[in-house]
Amino acid sequence: MRVRTVLVDDQELVRAGLKLAISRTPDLEVVGEAGTGAEAVRVVRELAPDVVLMDLRMPGVDGIEATRLITSQATDTRVLVLTTFDDDENVFGSLRAGASGFLVKDMPVPELLGAIRLVAAGDGLIAPSVTRQLIEEFAGRRRRHGPRLDAITERECEVLTLVGRGLSNQEIATRLGIAPGTAKIHVARLMTKLGVRDRVHLVITAYETGLVSP
Prior knowledge:
This protein has 214 residues and is α/β, with parallel strands linked by helices. It has 2 domains: 3-136, Rossmann fold; 142-208, Winged helix-like DNA-binding domain superfamily/Winged helix DNA-binding domain (Arc Repressor Mutant, subunit A, Orthogonal Bundle). 55% of the residues lie in helices and 14% in strands. The protein contains 11 helices and 6 strands. A 6-stranded parallel β-sheet has the order 2-1-3-4-5-6, with helices on both faces. Helix 8 (154-164) packs across helix 10 (180-194). It starts with a strand and ends in a 6-residue tail after the last helix. The relative contact order is 0.11. Residues 4-120 form the Response regulatory domain. This is Response regulator transcription factor.
């Protein structure tokens, strides 16, 4: 099954380049395009794609607001931000708006295509160049565990800690002596109980609640 993608960028040349790269890949396809944030919201509502590649700096409704509107209305559509700007405001604003990933435009095409697949599969992805500032930001404003973690079991707390440390499901399974499928189920239940969309936001929760330190 092909990953259905919508491209959002105010530069037509950028969209054309992305479309060309994606169209050469058998398991990915571009089903729509938008040049503004407002248009992106409308296109996503009509087409319900799997992934939206979202630029941030656009006239009118910017990429962060468009991301917020899309993720609040389309529960199955995931937003992957692709921008030339990796400053703190853009990174944190995008993730708070519900983006499942944040990448910069200078990344190699094969890595971008792989990122689309990861996000479509329910994982999240943050560019290495912004990971450290992300961790420092959320770890620096920790909250007490509180009600957010009261609903999870002791085992799920262990899994959340390991997710926060960057372990894959296979690595979590090995560490805890459980089957990989069981680790995957724990991760899925954590997303449901904590009300997050993907693994990136589980990592943020692990840092925010103090389960994991930088």
